[in-house]
Amino acid sequence: MANDKKGPVSFLQDVGKEMKRVTWPTRKELTRYTLVVLATLAIMVAFFFLVDEGISFLLRFLQG
């Protein structure tokens, strides 16, 4: 199989066949996944902001 060489046209035909086999998410699923990603991102931003502010406060406190 490693020696099977295909031209670009054959490759693109194979890509087209594989793309037809893909199970694409519905609009509702895609919206839900997007909201989950955005919520996770917001939580991570808030967490790292609080950690950064906490460390900054601690360093300012220790420096006097």
Automatic annotation (TrEMBL):
From the Swiss-Prot or TrEMBL record, state where the protein is found. Answer: Cell membrane; Membrane
Q: By its UniProt entry, which Gene3D superfamilies does this protein fall under?
A: Preprotein translocase secy subunit (1.20.5.1030)
Enumerate the transmembrane spans.
30-51
Q: Which family does it belong to?
A: Belongs to the SecE/SEC61-gamma family.
Q: How does it assemble?
A: Component of the Sec protein translocase complex. Heterotrimer consisting of SecY, SecE and SecG subunits. The heterotrimers can form oligomers, although 1 heterotrimer is thought to be able to translocate proteins. Interacts with the ribosome. Interacts with SecDF, and other proteins may be involved. Interacts with SecA.
Q: HAMAP family recorded for this chain?
A: SecE
The record describes the protein's role as: Essential subunit of the Sec protein translocation channel SecYEG. Clamps together the 2 halves of SecY. May contact the channel plug during translocation.
This one is known as: Protein translocase subunit SecE
Q: Which organism is it from?
A: Shouchella xiaoxiensis
